[in-house]
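[job 0412] stage=complex_fold ligand=adenosine-5'-triphosphate status=START
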Amino acid sequence: MVQQADQFKKVISHAKEYGFVFPSSEIYDGLSAVYDYGQNGVALKKNIRDYWWKAMVQLNENIVGIDAAIFMHPTTWKASGHVDAFNDPLIDNKVSKKRYRADVLVEDHVAKIEAKIEKEVVKAAKRFGVDFDEAQFKSTNPRVIAYQEKANTILKRLGKSLEKEDLADVKLLIEELEISCPESGSREWTDVKQFNLMFGTKLGASADTAMDLYLRPETAQGIFVNFLNVQKTGRMKLPFGIAQTGKAFRNEIVARQFIFRMREFEQMEMQFFIPPGTQKQWYEHWKKTRLKWHLSLGMGEENYRFHDHEKLAHYADAACDIEFKFPFGFKELEGIHSRTDFDLGSHQTFSGKKLQYFDPERNENYTPYVLETSIGLDRMFLAVLSHALEEETLEEGATRTVLKLPAALAPTKVAVLPLVKKDGLPELARSIVDDLKWKMATAYDEKDAVGRRYRRQDALGTPYCITVDHQSLEDKTVTLRDRDSMTQERISLSDLQNTITDKVAIETLLKKL
Ligand code: ATP
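[job 0412] stage=complex_fold status=DONE, emitting structure tokens
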């Protein structure tokens, strides 16, 4: 755990030091759980967004995109259920006066039990060596089974109590598990209360005519209210999807863990409209498709798992999360929800407008069902960044910090470095940048010794460095250095573009899908 906490601290400080993520309005001491993306962060974030968008919209002829406004008519949030049901159960510690999400306190407790299981697995793996079968060990070792049963029982009870809105039992559970405040160590808790997460604001200048609005807490509703617009103007036939990326706002109670839980964040959502009765099949389809998207980035199959929801939201008939192993443990990265006809049906009721589809095959009108995939762009950014950051010990005992980002997501694809700042090397290096910049993000760096420049690019995640030396002037060759292996090969200038372009293009990732 200490190691993991250390790793997380390193990720946060690396993100700041290298221009990926800054605390918001830092000169005024920041704003809690709000962050700004810096010059490198914005590029990484854009590349992740592009990869998602292309995988959804470009590769699927039956998925189109929209960009709906953040402000929506206030009735939207009554219809969606957010006014009544977008609550988190909160609890205060009487000694520290700190506020927590009651469900998160319990889940953190369960994570500690799961960490014990992991410890047993690591110990056993060492003992059994190559013959170790993790699945068999987990299903037969009495200690692991007992831990697992304990964890399952707790989560089941939490799920049931939340579903029944039995907040007294959630408090009882916290007491029974002897959960103490992480800050004060005290076990004196207030009752659990519901807290609505939407940010309110006003539209209009004068006090009496101003309209109460909410900043959208999810992008999905912008898609639902435009369902007919898109279906009609795009002459879309079911099944079809609408994708959207954009900001969402939630007044989170527990705003910690850096960009994992923010008050202003970005979502990438896709609502897939389907005939009623086909939701099971599409649920499985999108679970598989989305996991494949994640795995294509090469961040290790063992770092993902599905988590089925015990407590289903009011709109869902099946739901799960894709969890990723963040430096602080497995946590939700993406949600996949079978939303039935709840959303369109409810907007139909509240608006009085018919939101139906005529199915020529079935020869009937109906309200489509919806399968949703919803991923937080900032969480995805954190997953990519934290997985990529490594401290490597090199042969001579020296260390280097390297961001092993998937090349297609890296903010800068190639840095061109003249070995020295004279003899015409900078001019040749600049001409290489001028050649490459049409195709990819490039950097030019002539400051400091070349070894230091390599380290700088390693820390930024730049997959390739091109070094221009005196030989380059004579035979039109340069060295191409690979970030991960640190190997260098001599390559002719005329081959440069072809060699790099494919490796750094998002297309390369898309072809894995
Ligand atoms: P959690 O249980 O962690 O609060 P959620 O189940 O409320 O998340 P959803 O409403 O399903 O999340 O939102 C879809 C996705 O949006 C999540 O999987 C997550 O990646 C992202 N997300 C949600 N809340 C935040 C937040 N406060 N900051 C950053 N990303 C978020």
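The chain has three domains: 1-68+212-393, 87-196, 399-510.
[job 0412] exit 0
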